[in-house]
Amino acid sequence: MTPTLAQPHLPRAGTTPRGVDRCARARDWAEIQERMLVPLYEAVYERLEVGSGTRLLGLGCGSGLALLMAASRGASVTGVDPSSPERLALARERLLPDTSPDARPHGDTRLMEGGPDDVSGPDAPAFNMVTAFQPIGCMAGDSEGLSGLLEATVPLTGSGTPVVLAGWGPPERCTTSSVLRVATKLADPLRNTGSWRPALRDDLEEVAQRAGLKPDGSGRVACPFGYADTDSAVRGLLSTGLFDAAVGATDQVQVDKELTEALHPHKRRDGTVWMPNVFRYLIARTR
Q1: I need a surface site. Which of 24, 35, 243, 283 has the fewest CB within 10 A?
Q2: Is residue 37 part of a domain?
Q3: Is residue 118 over pLDDT 60?
Q4: Region Disordered: what ranges (predicted)?
Q5: Residue 205, by phi and psi: left (phi above 0), alpha (psi -120 to 50) or beta?
Q6: What is the dihedral sign for C-alpha 92, 89, 24, 264?
Q7: At 219, is the secondary structure helix, strand, or coil?
Q8: For position 10, what pLDDT does the model report?
């Protein structure tokens, strides 16, 4: 095993700041924020006809909603996540059966903390679909390491296997872009990550090509961010990790204040917060 692939990792906005309750943050992700990407998951699964013959590997599976949706279609799913054991614990609650007599497993499911190398072995299935649904393309450095992760995944698949990457759409079609600029305003400018940048048209294609994959189609999906109130919106956005550098450079109180102010234009008369967004996915294939 080469040093480069020994610990493949998914893009992250930064290290979780001290004092943050990681379990509470993971719960906020699972209960508030993750559902915003459901239209993206559905569009991809519909296009690739995910069903009983699908053997899916989810990279950075987090709390497992995308895997649960694939399993409900009959797919066999394996999820790996090296960066958030707290989210992975929630995925186990969703996908793995408990010990009660009436428990029903969600198909053939495996979840593990780690990366593709931890999946390999004589009992590992030959995956015929791979997803990396964690969106890239809005923070400097957020695709770092993803190409290496994909390279490590290729040996677990066959030729022509679809690999799905996801990213933010054009800033003019993502209302949340204006809110994400808070991260740039507050983050340490000397850092290489944690600063908002406009999504570029070829972000996903460049990652795929660096990994030796062949682009084979793409699509755009409307994924509006809707919240019951401003507090839920702040908690949901913080759970993404995109504001970690800002919290580290200032403090939680300051980031909460700035986020609340940035969300004010998107607050409706009934108190809910609504921000239309477009996300993009790329289907690339192994050679």
Answers
A1: 24
A2: yes
A3: yes
A4: 95-116
A5: alpha
A6: negative
A7: strand
A8: 41
